[in-house]
Amino acid sequence: MTFTDQEIEEFKIEAMDLLENAEKSLLGIDSEQDFSKTFDSIFRCFHNLKGGSGMMEMTALQTHVHELETILMDFKPGPTIPTHYVKFFLKGIDAARNLLDGKEIEFSYNLENSLTQNTEKQKHEIAKTNSESKLEKSLEKSFENSIEKVPDSKTNIRDELSQSKMTKESLTEFFRRAKKH
User: Fold this and answer.
1) What percent of the chain has pLDDT over 70?
2) Going by C-beta distance under 8 Å and a sequence separation of 6 or more, which residues neighbour residue 93?
3) CA 45 – CA 63 distance, rounded (Å)
4) Which range of residues forms the domain containing residue 102?
5) What is the pLDDT of residues 132-162, one digit of tens each?
6) Of 64, 80, 107, 134, which has the fewest beta carbons less than 10 angstroms from its beta carbon?
7) What is the CATH number of the domain that holds 45?
């Protein structure tokens, strides 16, 4: 399919807006904003750009943004995206801008290779985030298992636990603090 210069220019303007929105959301990911909302904003920008670039037959851009989107999904559970990875995605956005400008890019999507370039502090931050994520999943599973172990004769207790004001998140935080002491 052939596109007019005007159609291509309109797409580039829209694509640049999407990239700018993704960049702003990435820069605000650690602020007090709702992580889930911010994550969804970044995902939508990548997803819409991927679809639009496919429609415009810009396969290099489509492939690049698809890779970024796929890697981004690893962070959906939250609670944050480590600083090193935020920088990775920001570099990916810059590379997408270069592709829009008709330039070729060299970009490594292998995060393990990029980890070797980290400082010791960054490596510690990444390991800590991964460890906390595993702990949260383990605590959530323990909470669910505990509720399931309440005998059937005590269904009112099971229901109260399930509907308790103490959410899984607050229990996770409680157990995390307890482990520190």
Assistant:
1) 61
2) 19, 22, 23, 26
3) 15
4) 5-117
5) 555 555 555 665 666 566 566 655 555 555 5
6) 134
7) 1.20.120.160
